[in-house]
Design goal:
Blueprint: E1 4-6, H1 23-39, H2 43-55, H3 59-87, H4 89-108, H5 113-141, H6 145-176, H7 181-200, H8 214-233, H9 242-262, H10 278-298, H11 300-308, H12 313-319, H13 321-342, H14 344-362, H15 371-397, H16 406-440, H17 447-479, E2 485-487
Parallel strand pairs: 1-2
Helix pairs in contact: 1-5, 1-6, 1-7, 2-3, 2-6, 3-4, 3-5, 3-8, 3-16, 4-5, 4-7, 5-16, 6-12, 6-13, 6-15, 8-9, 8-16, 10-14, 10-15, 10-16, 10-17, 11-17, 13-14, 13-15, 14-15, 14-17, 16-17
């Protein structure tokens, strides 16, 4: 059997720090900061109607509360990751945490729509510093194979389950306090993460700083902005609108130009060696596809539970807890037991298949479906599947990476998840809306017909989500190398920062 070797040797060469004795505290700090970032991708969703009522903005403006965050976050991730490599991961992490807290306070105290959107955009900007720095710190802190598996199991579970936790937390805070607390709660997370980061993270500027690729930075930042903005416009404009296809085309061309430039730049922003490892490339795709497919659960199942079954915001959030529990359990099994013993090739495709099966089960929901008999089985199967995909993919996407590239590789993981989520949101919303319109064509728009049209739109979204995961099954089944993951005694140790 072919073996893929990863890991780090136990002896520490000259100039490289030994593993931190506080590394599990490092994991706690990183996990808390990552949870804060992931929560904010969904925590405002449930609070949005209350914020709209309080600030008096209209439905057409409402999407900008979500889009402002995703635009800044998605377009600045790669530069955020490279800054972590340039000026030190601890420094960038702490700046990201502090800035995220200030932006959250600004958005929470907003007296009008414009300040709320500015605060959300600043959250996204500082999140783009924080997220890749956190993942690269994790990658360079845990070099022992067994400890790395545990650490990435926990981190991957947070990344996969954070959206569901955001829905629960958003419901609790909105229902019992105020929509503003969905933003103020970040101050609690940030203070703990900042103090913990100061105490346990090792840092300082790297000894050999790579030069910043200015042309590449401009190309990829504007290109990613075009892609995220184009897909965001697809929710409110038709696909034939120049605001949709124009930005998508421009973004795609700029990303292509960025790829061309990276083959010629003397100090590329994203060295192609980061992408061209088969396991790493397969992992980037797995993270992106999962980001797109997960919205079939978090977005449309939320609509179904609240609109069709009349769940309260808190009850809706609680309904996702079994899925989160299944994901957390499977995350540990996949990273600690399965990947080291049999490798990613059977594990990640199996997870994609289970996630697809969960989506297919959701297509059978109707107005009389019970939670325990219809919703719960689909959530559990989806959770088990995502636990086999997200944590292993995040670990392998940054595995065996040169310490000088740890920040940019981590940023690429976050970028794939963000772009995948943007694609999933835009496509599924558009397809669901078209399905509802088609269902109502020729029918009297009675309350019963409207309810059935909604169900039909949700079912369409679930089918397409299942399709995303099937594509993921095929691609990861082809791309991942065969063989288990073992420790290479001659692999270079990582720098702990």
């Amino acid at each position: 059997m072919t073996q893929t070797t990863v890991g780090a040797r136990t002896d520490t060469p000259s100039g490289v720090e030994p593993a931190s004795t506080h590394r599990w505290w490092v994991l706690a700090v990183i996990a808390l900061a990552q949870l804060m970032v992931v929560l904010d991708s969904t925590v405002m969703n449930i609070a949005l109607p209350s914020a709209q009522h309080a600030l008096g903005f209209n439905d057409s403006d409402r999407q900008w509360v979500i889009t402002a965050y995703s635009l800044a976050f998605g377009s600045l991730l790669l530069i955020g990751g490279r800054l972590a490599d340039l000026i030190g991961r601890k420094t960038v992490f702490l700046i990201g945490v502090a800035g995220f807290a200030i932006a959250s306070a600004l958005a929470g105290a907003a007296g009008n729509f414009e300040v709320l959107v500015i605060g959300r955009a600043l959250q996204g900007m500082f999140g783009a510093l924080l997220a890749p720095a956190a993942l690269s710190l994790l990658n360079t802190t845990f070099t022992d194979a067994k400890e790395r598996a545990k650490a990435f199991g926990i981190y991957g579970a947070i990344a996969g389950a954070g959206g569901g936790l955001g829905l629960l937390l958003g419901g609790l805070l909105t229902e019992h306090l105020s929509w503003r607390w969905t933003l103020y709660v970040n101050l609690v997370f940030a203070v703990i993460a900042f103090i913990g980061g100061l105490s346990v993270l090792k840092g300082g500027a790297p000894a050999a700083r790579p030069k910043l690729d200015i042309p590449g930075t401009l190309l990829v930042t504007v290109g990613l902005f075009g892609l995220v903005y184009g897909f965001s416009n697809a929710e409110t404009h038709h696909w034939s609108s120049v605001m949709t296809w124009g930005f998508l085309a421009a973004g795609g061309l700029l990303i292509a130009a960025f790829g061309w430039w990276q083959t010629r730049a003397s100090h590329p922003l994203l060295p192609l060696r980061v992408l061209f490892d088969r396991n790493r490339g397969a992992s980037f795709l797995a993270v992106g596809i999962s980001g797109a497919g997960m919205f079939g659960v978090f977005l449309f199942l939320t609509y179904y539970l609240q609109v069709s079954l009349h769940y309260s915001p808190v009850s809706t959030g609680l309904a996702f807890l079994p899925m989160i529990g299944a994901l957390i359990v499977t995350a540990q099994i996949s990273t600690i037991v399965l990947i080291p013993r049999i490798g990613p090739k059977p594990v990640v495709p199996l997870g994609m298949g289970l996630a697809a099966a969960g989506m297919v089960l959701l297509t059978g929901l109707n107005l009389n479906s019970g939670y325990a008999t219809a919703v719960l089985p689909a959530l559990l199967i989806s959770g088990f599947g995502l636990g086999l995909v997200m944590p292993p993919a995040m670990s392998l996407a940054t595995d065996r990476i040169d310490p000088a590239d740890a920040g940019i590789a981590s940023a690429t993981v976050n970028t794939m998840q963000q772009i995948g989520g943007s694609i999933g949101t835009a496509l599924l919303n558009t397809l669901a809306s078209s399905a509802a319109t088609s269902y109502l064509a020729g029918r009297v728009p009675s309350p019963a017909a409207l309810a059935q049209a909604q169900l039909h739109s949700y079912s369409t979204a679930y089918w397409w989500s299942a399709g995303f995961f099937v594509v993921g099954l095929v691609l990861t089944g082809v791309l991942y190398r065969r063989g288990r993951i073992s420790v290479d005694p001659d692999a270079p140790a990582a720098v702990h920062m």
